[in-house]
Description:
Strand content: 15-25%
Enzyme class: transferase
CATH class: Alpha Beta
Order of helices and strands: EHEHHEHEHEHEHHEHEHH
Number of domains: 1
GO cellular component, one term: cytoplasm
CATH architecture: Alpha-Beta Barrel
Main location: cytoplasm
Oligomer: single chain
Bound molecules: erythose-4-phosphate
Strand order of the largest sheet: 1-2-3-4-5-6-7-8
CATH topology: TIM Barrel
Structural class: alpha/beta
GO molecular function: aldehyde-lyase activity; transaldolase activity
Shape: globular
Largest sheet: 8 strands, parallel, barrel
Active site: 85
Amino acid sequence: MKFFIDTANVEDIKKANDMGVICGVTTNPSLIAKEGRDFNQVIAEIASIVDGPISGEVKATTVDAEGMIAEGREIAKIHPNMVVKIPMTVEGLKATKVLASEGIKVNVTLIFSANQALLAARAGAAYVSPFLGRLDDISSPGIDLIRTIADIFEIHGIESEIISASVRNPIHVTDCALAGADIATVPYSVIEQMTKHPLTDQGIEKFQADYRAVFGE
Ligand code: E4P
């Protein structure tokens, strides 16, 4: 399983990129709004940091296929690594079909059922993004959806990649890897949590103490 970082914060993206663990970035309208900066400028900066797929979503207020197609074409022009993120609606599927036919990669987002994932894949999505944490939030096990989509794509030889989205903690990450997700898109805070183990910290302290006791600094 590969990792993308799920943020529009350039500093967090730099930190994760320097660690060598991410190969792509996902953003959404809420993450862009949180930064309070111009969309094109933020996306161009991100693309100059990470050499991999960067998902930029059409405006949250654009709901018709024609509007999504026009915006998608503009997003794709920002950088060759751009992926256009489109919400899972009938209009979104129509936009996916057109953009994919033009060679533009599409990430269909806000997926909460296996059927939505199947439709998105058949419309030509390069990526489908099922939201794990938001399903957990309503007491429906999100990981079951990831596993089901992975099984269905395997059975039918579907090549769209599964991006586990709405990943909220390190247990989610391990579960996604076991469930067969191709990618987990993870906030920087979770990547940082994943690096930690109390026995690692204790081990470093003991090695330092033992070394200093004999050799000093
Ligand atoms: C990424 O593609 C999604 O937009 C994101 O993971 C949503 O996460 P959240 O449910 O924690 O907002």
